[in-house]
Write a structure and sequence with these properties.
This protein has 26 residues and is mainly alpha-helical. It has one helix at residues 2-25. It has one domain (1-26). The protein is rod-shaped, with a radius of gyration of 11 Å.
């Protein structure tokens, strides 16, 4: 589970940042 959680964090961080950037641009 810890391994899966770490992968989710690695994948989710760039996704969240990308969403924040899109929100700021719009």
């Amino acid at each position: 589970m810890a391994f899966d959680t770490k992968l989710l964090e690695i994948i989710a961080c760039p996704v969240c940042k990308g969403k924040l950037r899109l929100d700021k641009e719009n």
